[in-house]
Amino acid sequence: MRQILFGEQWIHPEAPKLVKEIFYAKGRRTTLKKGSELLHGAPSGEVTLLLSGICLYRFWDSLDKEHIMSIIPPGRTVGDIDAFCGNIANVSAYMAKGGTGLVLPYHVWHESISANKEILEQQAVNIVVKQESHIEALLACFTLDVEKRLMALFHALIKAYYPPKLDDWNPLPFSLTNVLIAKVVSASRTSVSLILSDWQSRDFLKKTEEYS
């Protein structure tokens, strides 16, 4: 449901296999507690391969309202965008669900990806697609109504894990609260709740432990 670019709204692409192998070989296994902030950016930050849990990139506007820029499921790297540019982005890498990760100091990550041209190119492409997902998310929030934003979010979540099925239910890979969904799609919790309730009444959606 992307509109212009190749990134899926809000959902980062999985890290390339060769990049993951660097973390498996050199990363420090770390418990990432719910509510913790991941250190990121250069030169003193870290890059983390998320093994479990859910991380969010979030920021606050001039009115101190929180916005969610992206949802980062397991298998993705956190902190590589600003590390790749050698800066510190003004975003919070927040663990919405606790989990584990493999952590590399910035200098180890940078030296490792720079030592191999193929890995460096794969990392660069991965980062570009992440940024495209951010742009697509902004396009969705500015050009789609709330219902279509919700469809785009659910479609992106499902597509990140398996091809959507046209003739059967498509379970979400993990549960999200209505409050979190509302922040992601830049809508009120009331609007999101009303739309999801309407979908349930029309048998477009069923609620078990998670939305499907």
Automatic annotation (TrEMBL):
List the signal peptide residues. Answer: none
InterPro entries under this entry?
A: cNMP-bd_dom_sf, RmlC-like_jellyroll, WH_DNA-bd_sf
Q: What is this protein called?
A: Crp/Fnr family transcriptional regulator
